[in-house]
Design brief:
about 120 residues; alpha+beta; 3-stranded antiparallel β-sheet; 2 helices; 3 strands; Pilus assembly protein
């Protein structure tokens, strides 16, 4: 009787743990890609478009199949600051659920030359 009650609970907890790990890995991959894209776009003579390309390449390479339907945006970027947003879907281990949506962003100030005494 005890095994019949405890074993399904243990299996359910293990399943939930695996889902949490899968989601976390996909979220970290999206965050890292967004940060790498923001870094690339903020470099001297860089651009938001270059940051988007870098983020897309990095997300697809790092996450593999753990972050699906990757989309990258530079909405919110200004001449002083680059903002890269990476979105995608983490796979679901639950039957009937397509996946878990993830959105992460990274920002960085644009590098530029300044003269001594000029406001940063």
């Amino acid at each position: 009787m005890t095994t019949a009650v405890v074993l399904p609970l243990i299996l359910a907890l293990a399943w939930i743990g695996l889902q949490a790990i899968t989601w976390h890995f996909a979220a970290e991959a999206a965050l890292t890609a967004a940060r790498k894209g923001a870094q690339q776009g903020s470099e001297y003579q860089g651009s938001a478009a270059a940051g988007k390309r870098k983020a897309k390449q990095f997300a697809e390479r790092l996450a593999g199949g753990n972050l699906r339907a990757v989309s990258v945006s530079s909405a919110g970027s200004t001449p002083q600051r680059v903002r890269i947003v990476v979105s995608g879907t983490a796979p679901s281990l639950l039957p009937g659920k397509d996946g878990w949506h993830i959105t992460q962003s990274g920002t960085a100030p644009v590098e530029r030359w300044t003269k001594p005494g000029e406001d940063q």
